[in-house]
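*Target chain*
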Amino acid sequence: MTTLWHGRFETDPDAAMFALNASLPFDRRMAEQDVRGSLAWAAALKDAGVLTPEEHSRIAEGLQAVLAEFRAGKFPFTPEDEDIHTAVERRLGELVGPLAGKLHTGRSRNDQVATDFRLWLLDALPNLQSAIRDLQAALLERAEAALTPTPPPPLPLSQGERGRGEAVRPGGGGEVLMPGYTHLQRAQPVLLSHWFLSHFWPLQRDRERLADLRPRLAVLPLGCGALAGTPYAIDRAALAAALGFDAPAPNSMDAVADRDFAAEFLFAAALTGVHLSKLAEQVILYTSAEFGFFTLDDAFGTGSSLMPQKKNPDPFELARGKAGRLLGYLTGLLTTLKGLPSTYDKDLQEDKEPVFAAFDTLMALLPVLAGAIRTLTAHPDRMESALDDFMLATDLADYLVGRGIPFREAHALTGQAVRRALEAGVPLGTLSLSTYRAIHPVFDESVYQVFDPRASVARRKAVGGTAPEAVEVQIQNAKGKI
């Protein structure tokens, strides 16, 4: 077996050891990045006088042929290919002969793999950002539609959905009110639009985190050699520009060891997974019969092998479940990195699989969730029927504040009113005026104006609030982000 390092050894590597050591099964997806890096390195060697123009031309033609084979799915891998770098160099030798051996002059697989990995992630990030943006767009579309003043014609209900309220077509529903929850207990009324947007902004932060990664990602390791730098007159700034990097890495030892960018990406991916899981958990609850706020479209549900009536929210359950996987990838890489003693160590072969897997996981999830959100059927009357007077207790306390009572005292007085309503088993807004006045004489007939959930929502006009005009501003701001 001929390896890139066989000259030092008298015997071939043990077959099981070679299989353990090989990374080709997963790093082959960096094939195009490896060829691009080699093309740029060959040009840098020519400029440094290591390759003649004719040698450079032959090597470049060979590398272009290799690239064409990868793109056509016709690259001839062999059992002796240890990794994608070995495979490319071996194939180049088959195409251009011994001249291929000059390509690795002044270069190590240490700086080569770090370069390939960064190039791959630079190529991948825009695709992930676009997928997140599309889910944001789906949430924004639903938020804007739920703020439309005139609801569209109702959909007919299936027998299984009767009793859940009038079905409203996706894309409309008027200024729909729903309960807002804290501790999963009914808290205050909010607009459905506001709820949709509450999941838009975490995804915006996720996209911004990915964008913020670029300055630290676009730093070129190539030209750093194994750890000490290259002895050839390589213009690393020009090399960085040729490959689309912002600058060459300033320290060769750090450059071949640095995997901060991979950890940062996995953190961003894991936090995105957490945000998707939170959205999923709410949709799972809200599509249950107990809530009935939404109905999942058949195209995004699954059935039961035993119970014919079931429609299960599997895409959202998978989103919730895969958040754990994304968190695991981050924890695993950080654990690998924490104890490395030097520049490049073979432990770093463990860096790519979690990054590739995290990317693949999100790219599989995001389009499905966007489709499911776009096709959810909302049930506004079911949402609004879940509102009750007790959710307006804070408005009642604010009513007292408006009459000069300090908020802490107003809070306690409102608590007394709540307790009396609970003891009587009646809504808070149906307590008699005499009962209210017994709690405090400042109460008068105007107290009953408090118990209007739409008025409660309308009062919350401050930036970020749930009032229709505040949500409209929020929608316009959101449009500017995507």
